[in-house]
Amino acid sequence: MSAQHPVTVTPFQLKLKQLCIAVETLFECRRGRVAFLLNMIGTAALYWAIMVVQARWLAARPWPLLAISHLGQGLLIFWAIIQVVRRLHDLGRTGKLFWAIVIPPWVAWRVADLFHLTERPSLWELWIVLGLMCLWTVWLILQLIFRPGSEGPNGYDGRDFYKKN
Amino acid sequence: MTTAPAKAQWKDAHMHPPGFRARRGLNWFTVGLLYATFYMCRYNFRFAGPGMREEFGFEAQQIADLAGWFSLAYGTGQLVNGLICDRIGGRASMLLGAIGTILLNIAIGFSPFISNFSAFAVLWMLNGYLQAAGTPGMVKINAAWFNRAERGVFAGIFGFMIQSGQTMISLLAPVILNGFTFLAFAVGPGNWRMLFCIPPIFVGLVAIWFYFISAPSPDEAGYAGTIHDDVDNSAGTTVRVWESFKFVFSNPLVWFYAVAYGCTGAVRHASDQLAPLYFEDVLGFNMKTNLPEIAVATLALIPMVAVAGSVLSGWVSDRFFRGHRYPVAMVLYFTEAVVIATAAIVMGLKLIGPTPAGILLGCLFLVLIAVTANSTHSIVGAAAPMDIGGKKMAGFASGVIDSFQYYGAAIGLFLTGRLLKVSDGNYTFWFGLMTCFAFFGGCAMLSLLLRQKGRQAASRSVIVFMILLVLGGLVFGMPKYRAQKEVHRARVAEEAAALAAAQAQAAEAMALADAQAAEAKPKVRKVKRAPEVADDHRWIAPAMDDDTFQKKATPKPKKKKPKKAAINAPAAPAADAPTPANP
Q: Is residue B398 a contact partner of residue B139, using CB atoms and an 8 Å limit?
């Protein structure tokens, strides 16, 4: 086995390992529905504020400021993803379900963009199909907001996980 | 709940130490990004082609030859670099490939001597050879980071990385060709050399990031013993060239996968590279100046569905077949054969053509072929070599298997080109040939499946059947091809003769007209012209411009018409004819 072969680990790689543990731990927790809702509203408000600042003030400023604002938006998206994954863990579901929330609307948006559907209202049947595709997302979002979390440890709780390892 | 134990089992099987998944994600992102930037320095050629033709007068055939030689160098590079990669490690291999790619692209972009076709061809082949260090390196690194039952999904993401590299250069190339200004750096429009100078900057930046962040195995990142391999790695993950060569060449699994992957290459490259011609010739699109929306949509949809198919097939092989690729690959190959055979039948029935339904069908088949071809591409080309070679010899296993993809592509394109030529662009043959390759790939996987199940006799029977198929194709196909070639040659000769006759007739008519014009020099301008030259009247009076000629050739009216009536008259009635306004 590979463990028998002596390998040196550089201090930089060890620091990277610590960073990765810190990032992964961010996801390995649970979030109640009220806290989830408040976090999401706060995140959305901040995101919207940055968008307004970008449109009204940053457009005429040097580009590094705009880049920083985009970085801020990226961090907010990351924070929102963490909230969704934590909430899914609270419901006793795997965090991978996040993709089930994101992918259908993304595909619908891409298809609408590809076929220029906004310029063709006559293709309403396709709009209905795309809408049906997003129903699963809507259902999951409703569950995230309204469904109470599971009682006790449920296998997705980071504390249990790290105790075992 | 009956699924609960299965879920628990699944979760236990994927239990990794804290932070491992994030570290692996970071490593994979870094490796994949470098690999994607390699594609930027390969597909830039596609966009530079028209500029090169304009500047140096390269012919289309020469440009196509360059692409072919690049593929040949790339395929051979996979073999050689795979061996070297197992010796020096995946990380060093990728870095060497990156440095070589940067240097060669910059040499092409900046050097004034690259107006010579031979010099360009040599440099471009060298670029192909060095780029081939990327795949074995990437596969070797990831073999060390993924368990067998996790590699299918990784292979799907590999497909995504390839597509993202192509997308990046597709977005960047128009910006470069249109000209841009960045701080004090200004590039004029149409400067194709910049296509070889700017993408290497991206490769360089990502290579620096790669140098610091990537780790060749989890052991080097502080996660010793996390990933378990079928191959013994107790002496490390690098291996002597001869040992790797012996292990991979004597492993029958490699050859089954290589044959199947050759078939994937034939279908994938034929469908990728001939799609624009198919759009033009069969669906009647104008692909040069005015790309129709449905063509744009199809070309944009293909990478999306290809990635989805790759990830899904990888996941299925991980989840339901415990990391065995051949059952999924077999189903995919046979499905592909059925899809393409259906397309051939539909094409034969003339249902695909420049009608709305025909266009929709034509595009649908292209998308379906892309899904199946790219799914086999990722699980056979990326996942299988890792399973076979493990951390130690995945580089060479990948090199051997991947090189067959390019050799298969070369054979497929060679045959398709000739069949299309002798059949006068009958694309039913294109689909027919792709069906044969897909079926052949399915047979290779079926044979492997039977072998792995211990049914050696049945496996050998399938191999014999495959050999008979090839022989049958040669015995029955070659005479038919030759006969068709003769028919085509006769037809071409006939057409050339007809064209020559028409040209002679036109020349004769021209001479006659000249003679008549000379005879009636002062007044005759009205000449009976040959239909071939009806649109071109300049040969009658070359020194005259069109307006002067029209004025002189048109007989003057004897009686002046009132201006108003002349303007409103729809079909030039007689001067004294009654008009509605003036009955």
A: yes
Give the number of other CB atoms < 10 A from CB of residue B13: 11
Q: Given A1, A3, A17, which is nearest B222 (Cβ)?
A: A17
- Residue B237's pLDDT is 65
**Residue A159 near chain B (CB below 8 Å):** no
Closest residue in chain B to residue A22, using alpha carbons only: B19
3-state secondary structure of B237: coil
Q: Is residue B365 one of the residues assigned to a domain?
A: yes
* A165 close contact with B: CB closer than 8 A: yes
- A20, A116, A165 member nearest B22 (Cβ): A20
3-state class (DSSP) for residue A121: coil
DSSP state of A151: S
Residue B475: exposure state from Cβ atoms within 10 A (0-12, 13-18, ≥19): exposed
Nearest-by-Cβ selection for A2 from B212, B215, B233: B233
Q: Does A34 touch chain B (CB under 8 A)?
A: no
Q: Is the pLDDT of residue B545 over 50?
A: no
How far apart, in whole angstroms, are the C-alpha atoms of residue B573 and residue B567? 11
Q: pLDDT tens across B64-75, in order?
A: 677 778 888 888
* Cβ-Cβ contacts under 8 Å, A8 against chain B: 220
Instruction: Find how far residue B564's CA is from the centre of its chain.
Output: 62
Residue for token pair 């457009």? A59
**B389 contacts: CB under 8 Å, gap ≥ 6:** B86, B140, B143, B231, B247, B248, B395, B396, B397, B398
What is the Cα B371 distance to its own chain's centre?
A: 14
In a domain, B229, yes or no: no
B273 neighbors B413 (Cβ within 8 angstroms): yes
Q: Which residues contact B581 (CB under 8 A, 6 or more apart)?
A: B565, B568
Mean pLDDT of chain B: 79
Residue B361 in any domain: the answer is yes
How many angstroms separate the CA of residue B40 from the nearest CA in chain A?
A: 24
Residue B573 is assigned to a structural domain of this protein: no
The residue range of the domain holding B326 is 22-178+189-215+259-453
* Contact present, A33 and A146 (Cβ < 8 Å): yes
* DSSP symbols for B337-350: HHHHHHHHHHHHTT
Residues B420/B333, Cβ–Cβ less than 8 Å: no
Contact yes or no for B379/B314 (Cβ under 8 A) = yes
End-to-end CA distance of chain A: 20
Q: Is B182 helix (H, G, I), strand (E, B) or coil?
A: strand
**Which helix (H) or strand (E) is B312 found in, with range?**
helix B293-320
Residues of B with CB under 8 A from a CB of A: 8, 11, 15, 17-23, 26, 144, 212-213, 215, 217, 219-225, 227-229, 232-237, 293, 296-297, 300-301, 304, 391
Nearest-Cα residue of chain A relative to residue B24: A20
- pLDDT tens track for B362-381: 888 888 888 888 888 888 88
> What pTM, to 2 d.p., does this model score?
0.72
CATH of the domain at B46: 1.20.1250.20
